[in-house]
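Supplementary Methods. Inverse-folding protocol.

Structures were first reduced to a discrete structure-token string of length 158. This string, shown here, constituted the complete conditioning input.
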């Protein structure tokens, strides 16, 4: 992708884009800097639950960033409740913020099969029970903080 083009411009010009991600919000499905994601331009009317979508999130300073997260629920208003696969909090996204949908992943030069048994089990056991996942991830983060605090105190006493 050319450095001076935005994701929106590349999607408009080519209908798709391929890039490696930055961040861990979609672990374990997408590994930071290692997997190549293929995003297709889409119509929000075609989106369904558990699609991973690329959207633009603005921040308080008026700048923003591109985020790839999964649709967990389509709200009656037409908005989407989404979260990363490795996130314990979700957010609501307006249809106009969505730029494209994840259509493929290349891992080590080999494509991942979104129609395969493994991916379907991943969706069934990790993505579908997202409320339970939020609880599991919060507990995991709590224990990590506790362990770090204990290790830090042990280092100080030595």
């Amino acid at each position: 992708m050319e450095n001076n083009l935005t994701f929106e411009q590349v999607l408009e010009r080519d209908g798709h884009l391929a890039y490696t991600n930055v961040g861990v919000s979609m672990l374990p499905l997408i590994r930071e800097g290692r997997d190549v994601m293929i995003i297709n331009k889409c119509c929000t009317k075609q989106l369904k639950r558990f699609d991973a979508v690329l959207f633009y999130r603005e921040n308080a300073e008026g700048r923003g960033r591109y985020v790839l997260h999964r649709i967990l629920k389509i709200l009656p208003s037409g908005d989407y409740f989404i979260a990363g696969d490795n996130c314990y909090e979700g957010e609501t996204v307006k249809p106009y913020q969505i730029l494209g949908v994840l259509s493929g992943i290349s891992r080590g030069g080999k494509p991942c099969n979104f129609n395969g048994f493994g991916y379907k089990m991943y969706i069934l056991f990790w993505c579908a029970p997202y409320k339970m996942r939020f609880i599991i991830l919060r507990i995991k983060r709590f224990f990590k903080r506790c362990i770090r605090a204990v290790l830090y105190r042990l280092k100080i006493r030595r």
